[in-house]
Amino acid sequence: MLKNLQFSIAERPLHMEGRILPAPELLMDAPVQPREGVWDARRRLFYRGADINTWVVMNYNPRFVDQRSTETFITKLLHMADEKGMKFSEPVAAFGVWKPCPEQDFTRLKQEYSNLQLVLVILGRGGDLYAHIKRTGDTEVGILSQCVQATNVTAIKPQTLGNILLKINAKMGGINNVLSRTGMPMILERPVMIMGADVNHPSAGDGESPSMAAVVASYDRFASKFSVEVRPQPHRVEIIQDLKEMTKNLLRSFFIYTKGHKPERIVMYRDGVSESQFQEVLSYELKAMRTACTETEVDYTPGITFLVVQKRHHTRLFCEDRDGVGKCKNVPPGTVVDSGITHPSERDFYLCSHQGIQGTSKPTHYHILWDDNDMTMDDIQMLTYSLCHLYFRCTRSVSLPSPAYYAHLAAFRAKVHISELSERDGDGMTQEEIKCVATVEQKNALSSKLYYV
Q1: What would the pLDDT profile of 217-242 be if each residue is shown by its tens digit?
Q2: Strand 178-179 vs strand 211-218: parallel, antiparallel, or unpaired?
């Protein structure tokens, strides 16, 4: 068939030279050096441990997890938290609930414990309880929640406990790890706001539900803490319609946290945009960010660098003679290709920032649409690679910069809220009704100061 179509395929893949960026040095209680995209945090304290004084355990699966298993899990969790430098007190209460109702349960807890910080929920198998819990905690009651599968409570593994504490510490305002002074890109030495944006669209077959746009922005000097803005918008529209107002709110958060300082530079990582939409995104979204800055202060014009992050492509990188990393022999983390297979006139590059655990690693394609900051390709590549080491859920470098990853998570969480709303209020809700309810609930979540992704 190929011969009849007059196709010809080379016997060998295209051969080119790549570069391997040095992994940035990280800082916990002591410097940590990643090796092949992984670092050992088992004997290290968090850079900044959170203080958790008032929290509750809700066992929504008492048939499978008895009281003794729950107490054992809590004891080991608190012991490891102490080893990590967290001030994690004993829970003020632990309930076994046979008929879960998150709305009533969370409301009662909020009334009974006015300073409640966290609810740890033990889930059962299957069902849509997770969506109910997150919607109630995020948008109605204003309580942070951490869900744990019942099997992880009965079969306790140190690695699982460590992963749970990574998430709890970040949710409660702690910092797991930061870039050390020796590994910090130069752009982070001055006030800078690192942003990420993504839009989550309804699943196939859904022709009415709105798309959910999420934008996150850092507000500390470590690029480790992020404010979040989420908005519903018309069905399957990729361009973020309310980006101007979202950016203004994020700038206000930056001002408040830094006590009046303004970011001198802004770097945006925009996820989910195809090449056919580059010009449209640039003309609308970059203009919206500019307008947000000038409306905040007349003469405020920070330099903006706008990058598009793409994972949906068909480019793969292989080591010559399969001399790679890991059992699958993938290219090492930090591998950069910025010639040969890139655009002839525009600035773009491929970066494989993670270690492929299974199968062939897929590099991430970065396209620089705009750069007022006059950053060199080396500066942008090193900044991007460094941000891939700041994702709070694991002790590995990930395939996306942390702002883009957090925006993806925030958009997905908003989609969970919308889907739960549709099931709760029936399929008869129109798109405008869903959008109205979603907007109100998202504002309630923001007013509760749940700024962490």
Answers
A1: 999 999 999 999 999 999 999 999 99
A2: unpaired
| Residues counted in the chain | 453
- 432: phi then psi, degrees, rounded to nearest 5: -65, -35
| Nearest CA-CA partner of 165 in 52, 267, 53 | 52
Question: What are the DSSP calls for 292-321, one per residue?
Answer: HHHHHSTT---EEEEEEEE--S------GG
Strand-by-strand arrangement of the 303-310 sheet: 19-20, 335-337, 348-352, 364-371, 303-310, 265-271, 192-200, 211-218, 226-233
* CATH class as words, domain 178-447: alpha beta
Whether 51-171 and 178-447 share one fold: the answer is no
| Burial (0-12, 13-18, 19+ Cβ within 10 Å), 261 | exposed
C-alpha closest to that of 420 among 91, 137, 38, 185: 137
CA angle 194, 198, 200 (to 5 degrees): 160
For strands 87-88 and 31-32, give the pairing.
Answer: unpaired
Structure confidence at residue 423 (pLDDT):
63
Distance CA 56, CA 117 (A): 9
Residue 135 in contact with residue 417, Cβ under 8 Å? yes
Question: Which tokens is 142 given?
Answer: 């204003």
Contacts of residue 47, Cβ cutoff 8 Å, sequence gap at least 6: 27, 28, 29, 174, 175, 176, 177, 178
Side chain identity at 296, as an amino acid letter? T
pLDDT tens figures, 435-446: 444 444 444 443
For the entire predicted model, the pTM comes to 0.91
- pLDDT band, residue 424 (cuts 50/70/90): low
Tokens of 188: 């982070």
Structure letter (DSSP) for residue 43? T
Q: Cα–Cα–Cα angle for 118, 124, 127, nearest 5°?
A: 105
Largest CA distance in the chain: 76
Q: Write the class of the CATH domain 51-171.
A: alpha beta
Q: Helix or strand or coil: residue 75?
A: helix
For tokens 């009965």, the residue is 154
Domain boundaries, the chain: 51-171, 178-447
CA 253 to chain centre: 18
CA-nearest of 290, 352, 348 to 319 is: 352
Please choose, from the candidates 272, 306, 271, the residue with its C-alpha nearest in 3D space to the C-alpha of residue 288.
306
* Residue 205: pLDDT over 90: no
Interatomic CA distance for residues 105 and 206, integer angstroms: 32
